[in-house]
Specification:
single chain; alpha/beta; Rossmann fold; 2 domains; 11 helices; globular
C-alpha cells in the first residue's frame, strides 16, 4: 500500500531549507503532493508559504534539501526547465494584458505550441488556428461570453479566472496557485473556489491560500507552516482541530479557522 501511495506522489521535498543571512525562512520542510489532489499550504503571516513556493518554482535556490518531481531531482534546475516539465505557477508566469481581449490573452499563452512565442512580427492570421482551443479554455473557466471583451473591463474575480485559463493553456501537470482569492469579495471568492475545483479534474493543484473557508471546501490535504517549519498536515477536519494549529492562528485568523465549516 505504501509503495502504491509513493508511486502516486507527483511532487516531494526532503528537508527543504532556505536561509537568508542567518534567518531561516523555510526549515527542513518535507512535503508530498499526491497526483490528482488539491493540496493547500497554509499558515499565519510570515510562516514561509511564499518562500516555499519560490523554492519550488526556482525563483529562489534552496540552501539545502531536495525537490523531486515525478521522481526526478529538479533541485538545481532553472525556472524555464521547471515550467517545461509542467510545473506552472499561476498569477505570476501567466501574463494578462489589460488592453487585449480575453481571446487574445489566451491565444498568446497558446503560442508556445506553435513555437512562435516571440515572433510578434508575424501575421496575426498565424494565430487564427488557436481560436478554437482558446475559446474552449475560456469556456472551461466560464468566460466564453466575454471572449471579445477587453480584459480591463472585467471584474477582479473574472480577471483571476482568465489568469487560470492562460495557465491551463500552458498545459500544466502541476498548477501552483498563489493566494488565488486574495483581495476578493465574497461572490468572487465563491466563483473562483468553484472554478479551482472544476479545473482540478485530472490535474494536480498546490495552492497557498489564506482563506480557511476556501481551503475547507476544496483541499484534500492541508500542510500548515509556522516559522518556516511544518506544524501539521492532514485533511481539514483533522488539521482544524489540532491544538497547535489553533494556537498558531490565535490572534490572527483563529475565527476563520474555527468558523469555516
Amino acid at each position: 500500500m505504501l509503495a502504491l501511495l509513493m508511486s502516486n506522489i507527483i511532487l516531494q521535498t526532503h528537508k527543504l531549507t532556505k536561509e537568508f543571512k542567518g534567518f531561516t525562512a523555510v526549515s527542513q520542510v518535507d512535503l508530498s503532493v499526491v497526483s490528482g489532489s488539491i493540496h493547500a499550504l497554509i499558515g499565519p503571516n510570515g510562516a514561509g508559504k511564499t518562500t516555499c513556493f519560490n523554492l519550488l518554482t526556482k525563483f529562489l535556490e534552496p540552501t539545502s534539501g531536495t525537490i523531486l518531481f515525478n521522481g526526478i531531482d529538479i533541485t538545481r534546475e532553472r525556472p524555464a526547465q521547471i515550467a517545461r516539465r509542467g510545473i506552472i505557477r499561476s498569477f505570476q508566469i501567466s501574463a494578462v494584458f489589460p488592453h487585449l481581449t480575453l481571446l487574445e490573452n489566451v491565444r498568446i499563452a497558446l503560442q508556445r505550441q506553435l513555437g512562435t512565442a516571440y515572433h510578434f512580427w508575424k501575421s496575426e492570421r498565424t494565430l487564427d488556428q488557436l481560436n478554437e482551443r482558446a475559446l474552449a479554455l475560456l469556456a472551461e473557466v466560464g468566460l466564453e461570453t466575454w471572449a471579445h471583451e477587453l480584459t480591463v473591463n472585467l471584474s477582479y474575480g473574472r480577471k483571476r479566472a482568465l489568469e487560470i485559463a492562460t495557465t491551463l493553456a500552458m498545459e500544466p501537470e502541476l498548477m501552483l496557485l498563489d493566494e488565488p482569492t486574495q483581495g476578493m469579495g465574497h461572490e468572487d471568492v465563491d466563483r473562483v473556489t468553484q472554478l479551482i475545483k472544476k479545473v482540478s479534474a485530472g490535474r494536480t493543484i498546490l495552492m497557498v491560500e489564506h482563506n480557511m473557508g476556501v481551503v475547507s471546501t476544496i483541499a484534500d490535504t492541508i500542510t500548515v507552516l509556522q516559522r518556516g517549519a511544518v506544524l501539521a498536515e492532514g485533511p481539514y477536519s483533522e488539521v482544524s482541530r489540532n491544538p497547535q494549529v489553533m494556537e498558531a492562528y490565535m490572534g490572527t485568523t483563529s475565527g476563520e479557522l474555527q468558523g469555516a465549516h
